Structure prediction request, 439 residues.
Amino acid sequence: MTEPKKLFIKTYGCQMNVYDSERMAEAMGGKGYVQTETAENADMILLNTCHIRERAAEKVYHELGRLRHLKDENPDLKIAVTGCVAQAEGKEILSRAPMVDLVVGPQAYHRLPELEAKARQGEKAVDTEFPEEDKFEHLADRPKASRGPTAFLTVQEGCDKFCAFCVVPYTRGAEVNRPAARVLNEARDLVERGVKDITLLGQNVNAYHGEGDGSIWSLARLVRELAKVDGLERIRYTTSHPRDMDDDLIAAHGEVGKLMPYLHLPVQSGADRVLKRMNRGHTAEEYLRLIERLRVARPDILLTSDFIAGFPEETEQDFEDTLALIREVKFGAAYTFKYSARPGTPAAERPCLPDEVADERLYRLQELINQMQRASLDSMVGKDVNVLFEKVGRQHGQMVGKSDHLHAVHITADEIKVGDLKRVRVTGAGPNSLSAILM
Ligand code: 5AD
Ligand code: SF4
Prediction:
């Protein structure tokens, strides 16, 4: 028997990339590759890149520079760059980093096995096309290995919103929706392999409108149908845009028991002037009304968001409006970003704020978010919560899982196994997680 070839994948950025990396690993599994934890002994290295953050491309070139010696030591090693930096830089990567063999954009992953075979014959390739076909359908030939209790499932990709700061509509392209039947099949397959908790993924997931049987299904419809899958216990979806929260989806939060009381709904800023310049298409007040309606449907829903500090021309008053919105909504957690100009986006044409101003606002933003997160965790102490256990903890006999509200929960109890869903009593709260006991 021939030794399996080793594949090392380094994943940057969002959950969509994590999902894509898993699919690529499975597709390369069909070509005799097994995943390895270190780049050192790999036969193929895949950098699945993200373009959201500042100097993303530079960081990838830097990483490639660090990998060059491996290629010198093992001329059979193949290096592929995938993800949004691959899409944005294209063949530029091959000229700046000649050790790279393949540059594959997010819409061309189904061609990876074929491109790898060509690379083995010394043929370099750049594939950043946006084909019409469903890339995941082609990546579906995978071994039926069992897996952990939680999984991501991509239902939608790309974005038509064109927020003024964001590269996604350029790197991931226009919105593409997977047909509902394929999503349901993949969900059933995941459940057979041990998954109990699925997060539906999309850059703009609540804009989902996929082909159902003879009609177009909304995300709400998809969620209602998914909830009928036996053995699937929990459903979430991310990331959503406030403008696409329709009545049916809000209602689903009150009606579908398997839909978890958790929603990541980025608002970016609490100031109307900034929201307008960001091309978000809604006001702060409209966002607040939306939250109100969600809380009527599901009173205990936990909300999280993304915020950008120091967007071009943001005034101190604008920034304070953002802090006021955060205090009003009481988010359970949030991702905070310092604005960074992405070349090619409209916001990049505008004058940036001085760095010190943006840094100082980012700091204040983080302080407030930390305080909110702390309060959210503290409010759970003494309550009974459902926890799906995902892994063993660092301490002896400890298990770690997630509550319905996506709080991390630690417990020491020998009788709990990975994949168990149990009701536990919260006894304490730390800065990032809860501790609990069995009842
Ligand atoms: N600068 C700072 N943050 C950004 N994000 C997207 N583009 C930029 C940018 N140019 C943030 C937004 C988005 C999250 C995924 O990344 O908050 O919701
Ligand atoms: Fe980017 Fe805006 Fe689309 Fe989100 S909604 S991916 S921030 S353009």
